[in-house]
Design a protein that fits this description.
alpha/beta; Rossmann fold; about 40% helix
Length: about 200
Amino acid sequence: MPSVPTSRAEGDTVARILLLHSMYGLRPAVHAAADRMRAAGHEVHVPDLYVGRSATDAEQARKIQEEIGRDELLRRAVAAAAPHSDQGLVYAGFSLGGAIAQNLALADEHAKGLLLLHGTSQLPDDASTDIPVQLHVADPDPYETHDWLTVWYLKMRRAGADVEVYRYPGAGHLYTDPDLPDHDAEAAERTWRTALDFLAEL
């Protein structure tokens, strides 16, 4: 998609973002997030890893995810990133999409940054990267526990990443999605203000 003109100085480039959906699929909230980023002047690619399927509840979402399988979801995400990765992508994702985005970013020597919303992934012991990383997560979050995130943060720093973690007390896991019970409007707005500042600096 063509870049939207902004007030950036001449010669500056917008971020090129690959935004990956959660286990619920490519829902309206994902498109709305992409539109926020585009309105800020960024180029956003939003692949549909479920190829037209989506879920309205967690049980249905997990069923679709399991039917497709982790390896196939990763393969689809790699294929979606491939046409743009040599331009220097910022990888971003919601929950499951965040976990996949992290895997892609750490494997891409041209990656410019990583924006994680509600989700992380295990890091290999030999991980190495110098990209800026920003994580937004509910506090507490049953899927991203304090112990898990402490280990994740230390490993990410050890890998060389510049990491910022933002916690939102009382919010539900996928609090940025207004169509889910987890939604927290105040936390979502704070998240987007901070995330857009992060993207503007890349």
